[in-house]
Amino acid sequence: MPAGYERLTELGEVLARARELSLRTLIFDVEPLVAWWDSGEQALDRGIAVILAELGEVPEVQVVMFATNSARRPSRLPSAPGVRVSYLASAGKPLRTAPYRGLPGPGAVIGDQVPTDGLLARRLGFTFLHWSPRLAGVPLRPKLMQLLGRAVRPLVFGGNDRPGRRS
Predict the structure, then answer these.
(1) What is the reported pLDDT for 166?
(2) What's this model's pTM, rounded to 2 decimal places?
C-alpha cells in the first residue's frame, strides 16, 4: 500500500479505519494520543492499556508499537492476545527507520505531527492516520510543529485536508 494520508479526530475513527484497511501494523505516537505531554508514568500505563483493550476492533493487527521521541517509558508493557506489542522511547522520528524494519504491511503511523509521524509513515510506505482533534493546553513546541505540519503536509501527502479523507 502506498503511503496515504487521512485526518481523523477520534480513537474510534482511527481503529475503524485500521479495520477497513486491514492493517497489520499500527505505530502509535505517544504524546498526546496515548498520554498527554509531561504526564506521569501512571497516565502512560493507562493510555497504553486503553488502546490495547480496543484492539479487538482490528482483528488483522499483528504488531502494535508505541513510539515517542521523548525518553519516557511505561512501568510495564501489557500484552494483547496474538499481537506483538513494543515500545520505543527516544525514537528519533522521522530519521531513524531501523526499529521498524520487518514490520508486516500494510501498516499505519497514528500521530498528531506531520513533520515527525507523517514523514515516518511516508518513509515506511505506511498510511498516516493524522490524529487531529481540537485540543486545549497544547505546549508551545507541539503547537509550532503543528504549524510547520500544515505547511509541509501538501508537499508530502498532496492537497486534501478534509477530515476523514485520503490523499
Answers:
(1) 46
(2) 0.86
